[in-house]
Design brief:
alpha/beta, Rossmann fold, 6-stranded parallel beta sheet, two-stranded antiparallel ribbon, globular
Length: 198
């Protein structure tokens, strides 16, 4: 294995989570207009690349399975993320998505799979296809599933966000202790930069 990677969850890490007023919930974007990058994301991605990492998106996207959006809308959202990153002179080296959900309404995607985080299937697939040494790699996400997937795959992990008591408890119950916690992706890039110097 010759490469190392920083694997990134997408929603809540690269782009903002959306407040859906009509339902009163926070959720992933459901159309391209809702895609807005979080601050300094391009800067963070470029820092990872300057440190010699590939940058790869690893994301559960069950919206199609749940009939929240179509494949066409999903492709347009992917394109919007790429376009917004390009404006910041940044890009990713790969995108791996799980479109399945065991309770999905769309029968084509209503399956129990090996790619849906917390399972490490997408990370393992990316590692195989892009010749990545997982022990030298990182998984960064804003949820317990991201940390579990990264740990199971053999990566170091960074949880984005502030530790809240309920999240602390959930991480403890699930045995998913991140190696580090950072408030945002750019701060996570500084942690990795520091670790690479050691």
């Amino acid at each position: 294995m010759t490469n190392k990677a920083v694997f990134l969850d997408r929603d809540g890490v690269i782009n903002e989570i959306v407040y859906h007023r009509e339902m009163g919930i926070l959720d992933s974007p459901a159309n391209p207009d809702e895609i807005k990058l979080l601050p300094d994301v391009g800067k963070a991605i470029n820092k990872f690349k300057n440190l010699g990492f590939k940058v790869i998106i690893i994301s559960n996207q069950p919206g199609i399975a749940k009939d929240k959006f179509t494949i066409d809308a999903f492709e347009k959202m992917k394109e919007k993320v790429r376009d917004e990153l390009k404006k910041q002179e940044a890009s990713v080296d790969g995108e791996y998505y799980c479109l399945h959900h065991p309770d999905g309404k769309n029968i084509d995607y209503k399956i129990i799979c090996e790619c849906r985080k917390p399972k490490p299937g997408l990370i393992l697939q990316a590692a195989k296809e892009q010749d990545i040494d997982l022990s030298s790699s990182w998984m960064i996400g804003d949820g317990v599933n991201d940390i579990q997937a990264g740990q199971t795959a053999g990566c170091k992990t960074i949880l984005l966000g502030r530790m809240k008591c309920d999240l602390c408890e959930l991480l403890e119950v699930e045995g998913a202790k991140p190696d580090f916690i950072a408030p945002n992706l750019f701060k996570a890039s500084l942690i990795i930069e520091e670790e690479e110097r050691m």
